[in-house]
Specification:
Elements (H helix, E strand, L loop, with lengths): L2 E11 L2 E10 L5 E4 L5 E6 L4 H10 L1 H13 L14 E4 L2 E9 L4 E4 L3 E6 L5 H28 L11 E5 L6 E4 L4 E5 L7 H14 L7 H10 L3 H11 L3
Parallel strand pairs: 2-4, 6-8, 9-11
Antiparallel strand pairs: 1-2, 3-4, 5-6, 7-8, 10-11
Bound molecules: zinc ion.
Zinc ion (ZN) binds next to helix 4.
Amino acid sequence: MKEVSTETRKLCTEHGEIVFTLEIKDIKNINLRIRHNGEVYVSAPINASKDTIDSFVMRKSKYIRNAIDSFRQNDISKYDMQYISGENVTFLGKNIRIKVKKDTEEYVSYDGIFICIHVKRPDYYNCKKNLFNNWLNEQCDKIFSEIIKDIHERFAHYNVPMPELRLRNMTSRWGSCLPNKGIITLNKRLIEAPKNCIEYVVYHELCHFIHPNHSKQFYSLLQIMLPDWKNHKQILENSLLL
Ligand SMILES: [Zn+2]
């Protein structure tokens, strides 16, 4: 099929921003394709208007967002990591160097400078990937839980129960919560952010346990709890892209 033109389009939908590659071709219908790396492709007939194409994507936005999320679900953080010595990863706002070491035991260690992947066969990509991702999951669980525990103390007198932490890879938000079930879900990618940014997200979600919507009262509570929240939000948005 001859391609007539290709362009990248960006749409703000109720399920977050969707970036897609639009291919205009000599075809009859609008088609949607989502690759396993989360890239979205839309092909459309030559005579289709941009409005028609955009509203097609709008209608499918929930489906697209879920598909991207589930493709990325299996891969933590950097889905194009190589797991080789000298590679850099962002961890708690710092650039950390990866080291791969041949060892008789398999584990990951971190000394504040290097994240060292100890592995029997340094050439086995999947082995290193699993070790690293399991370690990163443990770090998310440990560090996020500590932050929640500390911040929760300030909400205890509002009768907010200690929330249960869930971890997910999400592409459209940093956190979400189900106040009536006592659950806070945090995006695993937050482990890349400075600690005060993670704290900001936890403050935001805990304020929802008292005010479920983004009402005036919600923001005044957040302001009392974390007067500097706008600054932290800005740092988060500047340092990490969702
Ligand atoms: Zn919110």
